[in-house]
């Protein structure tokens, strides 16, 4: 039995696949690691589809060519036994599980999410996002519902840098503030579905004003991604009582942690001073005792 890297790889594109692409995806997932031993001609014969159609599918899921795709599969597959040596194998939580087993499953799911993140994170995309942010006059955070909480946490973190940051929870204020931003500003928008109407409306205003946009979403085919300068697509799976949005929250926050930590070393002296100034200002909130 194997951990199916292909299933993880294809997951964020599932909603946008047509029937032909779904057939290719299902066949590749069934093949698992054996796909690295296949040629385009093999896959064409097995699926009854043309080599060109299969090649287009590989391009759609983010690869420049079939060989690059096979290299990625070969380097990311690991056997079930190898993974089970590291952690208790995850399956969905049942009512018969003890609190400790629930704890194991929740923690191990989070570990798996973070492993998937590091396996699929695009270094060039990360560097592009950091370049956009460091070249901007202001950094602005937007989100609705559960995504608003992630946006606020990110804003709170970035306040520790030397960069000027802004966050507003109210949707009307978000719309209003978006009109004030321009080409020298950058906005980070969160929407796991990628189809949150309010966030899309904010993004449209930002796009009209030529604001640089970084999107974190779970849907690579969403309207938000089409408006973005940089888009991070987050992999997650829904279980019975943990929605996809909740499980993905950890990954969003981790991506922000990566960007924040990297940016602290851009203009390190200024950021260090900003952090010290903030700590000094907050020191009045700490109780020193008698």
Automatic annotation (TrEMBL):
Residues 129-269 form the SIS domain. One of its GO terms (molecular function) is DNA-binding transcription factor activity. InterPro entries: Homeodomain-like_sf, HTH_RpiR, RpiR-like, RpiR-like_SIS, SIS_dom, SIS_dom_sf, WH-like_DNA-bd_sf. This is SIS domain-containing protein. Pfam families: HTH_6, SIS. Gene3D superfamilies: Glucose-6-phosphate isomerase like protein, domain 1 (3.40.50.10490), Winged helix-like DNA-binding domain superfamily/Winged helix DNA-binding domain (1.10.10.10). Keywords: DNA-binding, Transcription, Transcription regulation. It comes from Fundicoccus ignavus. Residues 4-80 form the HTH rpiR-type domain. One of its GO terms (biological process) is carbohydrate derivative metabolic process. The keyword Nucleus does not apply. The keyword DNA-binding applies. The lineage of its organism: Bacteria, Bacillati, Bacillota, Bacilli, Lactobacillales.
